Amino acid sequence: PVNKPNIIIGDFNSHNTIWGYDSNDSDREAVEGWAASNDLTIRYSSKDKHTFSSARWKRGYNPDLAFVSSQHVSSFERTVGDPIPKSQHRPTALQTKPVVKALESNSIPRFNFRKAKWEEFTQDLDSKITLYRCRSV
């Protein structure tokens, strides 16, 4: 469904400079076309660890990709875990980011106690207490 996020994670076995390879191969066109036709966006950061380490070539690659519905892409964060024992792959996870809803405006006052000017508050309170005492006497 359009209003719900689609999440696809897998080993796409294609090379593309977009997801960290030095060059492109013909399979990348198929993956890009598939993602575009399904309105999916890749969740990839060049700062992420490689998802696959080749023992033969002694370097890391990123065949394990994560795609999310384009309208929901900002709601998800991709992380790459530590290597799986006896495997050349690292687990890839998509996590939802916390959703922060705006507070509805109503008559209940909201206070930010960390930003409060406590010195001014106590002085103002002391003066009101003093004024109250003077009036009640």
Automatic annotation (TrEMBL):
Nucleotidyltransferase in keyword set: yes
Organism classification: Eukaryota, Metazoa, Spiralia, Lophotrochozoa, Mollusca
Gene3D superfamilies: Endonuclease/exonuclease/phosphatase
PANTHER family (alphabetical): ENDO/EXONUCLEASE/PHOSPHATASE DOMAIN-CONTAINING PROTEIN, ENDONUCLEASE_EXONUCLEASE_PHOSPHATASE DOMAIN-CONTAINING PROTEIN
Residue span, Endonuclease/exonuclease/phosphatase domain: 5-91
Organism for this UniProt entry: Elysia marginata
Protein name in UniProt: RNA-directed DNA polymerase from mobile element jockey-like
Molecular function per GO: RNA-directed DNA polymerase activity
Keyword Cytoplasm: no
InterPro entries, alphabetized: Endo/exonu/phosph_ase_sf, Endo/exonuclease/phosphatase, RdDP_mobile_element
Keywords: Nucleotidyltransferase, RNA-directed DNA polymerase, Transferase
Segments crossing the lipid bilayer: none
